[in-house]
Amino acid sequence: MRFDEAYSGNVFIKSHPSYEDSQVVLYGMPMDWTVSYRPGSRFGPARIREVSIGLEEYSAYLDRELEEVKYYDAGDIPLPFGNPQRSIDMIEDYIDGLLGDGKIPFGMGGEHLVSWPVMKAIAKKYPDLAIIHMDAHTDLREEYEGEPLSHSTPIRKIAEHIGPKNVYSFGIRSGMKEEFQWAKENGMHISKFEVLEPLKEILPQLAGRPVYVTIDIDVLDPAHAPGTGTVDCGGITSKELLASIHAIAHSDVNVVGADLVEVAPIYDPSEQTANTASKLIREMLLGWVK
Question: How many other C-beta atoms can be found within 10 angstroms of the C-beta atom of residue 29?
Fold first, then answer.
């Protein structure tokens, strides 16, 4: 279950040496074939791993160390360049395999379309699945300029697949008027602009349910994460996003998978974005894997 041929050799800090003995599998989805503005997120997973060496293994927020969580960094899925449909199929097949082995998938993107096949695969195992989505953008389009396979469509796809009332979006500040109208008419939850407070209100409603969490790094204001494909001003701070991750950790929801997407290192020579993403993943692992 490791992609040695396509893998650079770096692993996320404190990765467990054994796939078989691990509870969580961390993996990369290096795809940016459908982006509508700035490509480069296919390089995100590798750089997030590389900068993780600068992390402390201990979380002062959660009073846990990475060695307490058995997670295995499987490397990047070797996705075929320029082929969205084949890439999506490969991701879904891979997640099917992880779930069949009893693993919890934690993914790194890549553009946001990569979340769609993961959520679809997880919904097969958990029919009562709920989605928590943190993002600057609605991602509720049916297509983008005639193309249904687009990074602007994954939340619409999963909402239609499991029912809009099971999808909860936070931090949204950009999208077509029709997208917001569709969400309202179909009972989908959208919290504009903010994440933490509306999330804390929703979490008790999801107690006991299997939940998949997908985080687009552009939910952060560009001041906190300039290295992404579609920056959008007016976002939340990294402190609020960390607090939101911890709110989920302290809730009674059952996180059955997660991803962090849209880190594009080329647009951030300071590496602030990659380092932030790396710390977020540490807190997700320590907070959501019981």
Answer: 29
What are the phi and psi torsion angles at 133 (to 5°)?
-125, 120
Contact of 230 with 136, CB cutoff 8 Å: yes
pTM of the predicted model, to two decimals? 0.96
Rounded distance, CA 235 to CA 242, Å? Answer: 14
Pairing type for strands 189-192 and 254-261 reads: unpaired
Cα separation, 112 vs 131, whole angstroms: 14
The HSE-up count of residue 182 (CA atoms within 13 Å, CB side) is 18
**Can you spell out the DSSP letters for 63-105?**
TEEGGGS-EEEEEE--PPTT-HHHHHHHHHHHHHHHHHTTPEE
> pLDDT, tens digit, for every residue of 24-47?
999 999 999 999 999 999 999 999
DSSP state for residue 135 in the 8-state scheme: -
For residue 61, list its beta bridge partners.
Answer: none
Q: How many residues does the chain have?
A: 290
Q: What is the pLDDT of residues 240-271, one digit of tens each?
A: 999 999 999 999 999 999 999 999 999 999 99
Report which DSSP code applies to 217.
G
Q: How far apart are CA 196 and CA 181, in angstroms?
A: 23
Domain coordinates of the chain in residue numbers?
A: 4-288
Q: Report helix angle 272-288 to 44-51, nearest 10.
A: 80
How far is Cα 26 from Cα 49, in angstroms, rounded to an integer? 10
Place of tokens 């994954």: 154
Which homologous superfamily does the CATH classification assign to the domain defined by 4-288? Ureohydrolase domain (3.40.800.10)
